[in-house]
Amino acid sequence: MADPRRVLLTGASRGLGAALGRGLAGRGHSLMLVARSEAQLAQRVAECSAAGAHAASCTADLAIAEECERVARAAEQRFGGIDVLINNAGIGPYRPFTDHSATDIVRIVALNLMAPMLLARALLPGMLARGHGHVVNIASDLARRPLANMAPYVASKFGVLGFAGSLHRELRARGVKVTTVLPGIIDSSFNGAVEGGQDARWAMPTADLARQVIALLDLPPHLVADEIALHPVDGDY
Ligand SMILES: NC(=O)c1ccc[n+]([C@@H]2O[C@H](COP(=O)([O-])OP(=O)(O)OC[C@H]3O[C@@H](n4cnc5c(N)ncnc54)[C@H](OP(=O)(O)O)[C@@H]3O)[C@@H](O)[C@H]2O)c1
C-alpha cells in the first residue's frame, strides 16, 4: 500500500489513540480522529497538523450503531477513501459482574465489539474495490485470558479476536489485511487511571506501543501480522 495513507483512528482523544495519532502524523498520513471529547480531539488535530499531517476530527459516540456509519462516511468524504481503520476506542470498568448495570453491559459490548464490526462493514467495500486496505483492532491480552471483575470487557475482547481472525481468513486473498493487537497493561487513562509515570516494566508507555502498532502497517504486501501480543516485561500475564 502506497504512503501516505488515509487512516480512520478511533479513541484518538487520549491514551494509546493519542499516541497512535502522533506517531501516524509524523509519518505524514491523513488522519480522521474520532472520540467523544470535542476539546481533546481539537488538541490532537492541532498536534497532528503541526507534525505535518492532514488531520481532521469527527466527534461521535461509537457505542451508538448509527454513529459508526456516519463517521465512516464522513471520513471517506473528507479524504476520498480510507486505507486503514484502527479500532482502538474501548472501555472496561473493573467491578463485579452484578455491579454492571444493563446499560453498562450493552455499552461495553457496543463500543468494544460492535463498533469495530460496523466500522469495518462500512469501510471494507471501498478497501476491497481498491484492492488494498488494513483493519487494525486493538484488543487486549484479555482476549485470551478470563479475568474476574471484568466479565463484559473480557467477553467483548474475546469477541474481537474471533471476529478479526475470521475476517482475516476471509479477506487475506483480496488485498485487505486484518491485524489484532493484544496488549498487556498500558500506561494510559484507561478506567480513570492517570496517564504517564508508571513503571515501564509494569505498564507500557503509549508511545512505545504505538510505535510497534504503526510498524505493522509497513509489513510488505506478502506478510501479515494477524495477531500480535505485546507485554511489559514484568507485567502480570
Ligand atoms: N489500558 C490498558 O491497560 C489496556 C490494556 C489492553 C488493551 N487496552 C485497549 O486499548 C485501547 C485503548 O485504550 P487506552 O488504554 O488508551 O484507554 P483510554 O486512555 O481510556 O482511551 C480510550 C479512548 O476511547 C475513547 N472512547 C471511550 N468511549 C468512547 C465512545 N463511546 N465513543 C467513542 N470513543 C470512545 C476515549 O475518548 P472519549 O472519552 O473522548 O470518547 C479515548 O480516546 C482500548 O481498546 C482498550 O481496551 C487497554
Topology:
Layout: E1 6-10, H1 15-25, E2 30-35, H2 38-50, E3 54-59, H3 65-79, E4 84-87, H4 102-130, E5 133-138, H5 151-171, E6 176-183, E7 186-187, E8 204-205, H6 206-215, E9 227-230
Parallel strand pairs: 1-2, 1-4, 2-3, 4-5, 5-6, 6-9, 7-8
Helix pairs in contact: 1-2, 1-6, 3-4, 4-5
Description:
The protein is 42% helix and 18% strand. The chain is an alpha/beta fold and 237 residues long. The chain has a single domain, classed as NAD(P)-binding Rossmann-like Domain (Rossmann fold, 3-Layer(aba) Sandwich). The strands form two sheets. It has a seven-stranded parallel sheet, sandwiched between helices. A two-stranded parallel sheet has the order 7-8. α5 links the parallel β5 and β6. The longest helix is centred in the middle third of the chain and has 29 residues. The radius of gyration is 17 Å and the shape is globular. The structure holds NADP nicotinamide-adenine-dinucleotide phosphate (NAP). NADP nicotinamide-adenine-dinucleotide phosphate binds next to α1.
